[in-house]
């Protein structure tokens, strides 16, 4: 049996069932959402055993053969993204159980939560470009609603701002799809790859590539288009911030961009240097400004949101350098940053749950009373700034190795310095919130919250020590999928 | 060609409204214009002059059909557009209830 449709059908079914069944018993919303995310976590790891390196699993919707019907394609790149989504969503859903005591509308929250999961999973495994648009919209619309979930002045303003930016990106994605369809008369990404590689590159090809770059640069909050992110991500409830910052921008922005540019458009650093130089430039500027603005924030979650902009920049620099190790580092950083940043946002949720405050000047002395939260934050900080045995060290090392191999020594040195700078702004929170001695009587967070934070801490350590296994089973095959270029089309259509 | 230029003009009008207007409702109208323009463009992609509607009435009938796929896709896009417009309007209503104004220059809670 083909497991592929389950990845988005399960959360969609959950989104349908939760509002109905919770009329019978309110506990069903927690139960269904958490059991679906647990199943997704097991399914995502289990599905790795189903296929070898270089193979793909194809699911034909309705039994229509590939160029005609919608296909779902599962290769190692999709597997990497699906595993990252499943980890983050699992931790966030456990965390939500107690965190939502602050909010009314638990049922609506879980419905939107399931829809955003379904949308992201769909983006990761779809093989059809219009289907990609539909899943992007499912995920985006539920994220706008989740950002506005608190229905206060700030949340609504952030959500509206986010929606304006996000919808411009989505509509331009639709425009690019229209242009591509007019050019190639096909929507299947594999067929599109074959058609485009035969047809050659004219102005229309580059026009579409530029529109797609613009659209996904907004979705992934690269520097000139980043303005929505530091408002939207902190305004959402903490588990949703963890999803949005941890994985959402990477699936809708980075993954969609690299899948289309490498596998469908067949761009490589050799045949289109300008495109990749733009990626390096945008990434580097994001790392730089994200870091500088983050160090000046005094809001716990806003600081983390700016840090996300900087870390997405690292991923983009890795992709932009474009040789084997740099891309491997960029892809590894998608997973590493997903775990680490969602952990950081969950600690912010724990602090808000316990104290009700987010301002760094008002928070103090939580290091003693909230031991698990404080240690989770410290370990995540060390991981994100690249301390060796933790998972965050390896991606940055690979990107720097890639930069050296590409003879971009200045870039390698700059990245190493900026990586240390990450530590500087994240330490600000440790210094203000956890390290100060002040008598406070905030209790430690409830068990389920600690459980979800511990789960991410354990993964961070486990993936750090077992990085060799992770590299061989997931990251290197995923990198080969990207470097295979338009061979993606031949692998799916056969011949 | 005339219709393609029309859609491009509409796209520019929509973007202009989104970027320059300060009233929430006008921004949403800008989005509606942009969205309809792109849907119109998409429908035009499948258009052929003098072709028939893509309905097969007899086995060996005329084969000069317009492409039906863009029409199906535009239907999907219109439904998605309905959802986004409805959500955006509900944000505008809630913002009006909180601030008693639609003017975005007066809605400034977030900074930094």
TrEMBL record, chain A:
Residue ranges crossing the lipid bilayer per the database entry: 6-24, 31-51, 77-97, 109-126, 163-184, 204-225, 237-262, 274-294, 303-328, 334-356, 377-402, 408-430, 451-471
Segments forming domain NADH:quinone oxidoreductase/Mrp antiporter transmembrane: 128-422
Keyword Cell membrane recorded: yes
GO cellular component: plasma membrane
Cross-referenced InterPro entries: CPA3_Na-H_Antiporter_D, ND/Mrp_TM
A Pfam family: Proton_antipo_M
Compartment list: Cell membrane; Membrane
Protein's membrane topology: Multi-pass membrane protein
Keywords: Cell membrane, Membrane, Transmembrane, Transmembrane helix, Ubiquinone
Superkingdom of this protein's organism: Bacteria
Family as reported in the entry's similarity comment: Belongs to the CPA3 antiporters (TC 2.A.63) subunit D family.
Annotated PANTHER family: NA(+)_H(+) ANTIPORTER SUBUNIT D1, NADH DEHYDROGENASE
Protein name as annotated: NADH/ubiquinone/plastoquinone (Complex I)
UniProtKB/TrEMBL annotation, chain B:
GO cellular component: plasma membrane
Matching Pfam families: Oxidored_q2
Keywords (A to Z) from UniProt: Cell membrane, Membrane, Transmembrane, Transmembrane helix
Transmembrane region(s): 27-47, 72-93
Superkingdom of this protein's organism: Bacteria
Keyword Cell membrane: yes
Major subcellular location class: membrane
Gene3D superfamilies on file: 1.10.287.3510
Membrane topology (UniProt): Multi-pass membrane protein
Compartmental location: Cell membrane
Keyword Membrane: yes
InterPro entries per UniProt: CPA3_antiporter_subunitC, NUOK/Mnh_C1-like
Family, as annotated: Belongs to the CPA3 antiporters (TC 2.A.63) subunit C family.
Protein's recorded name: Cation:proton antiporter
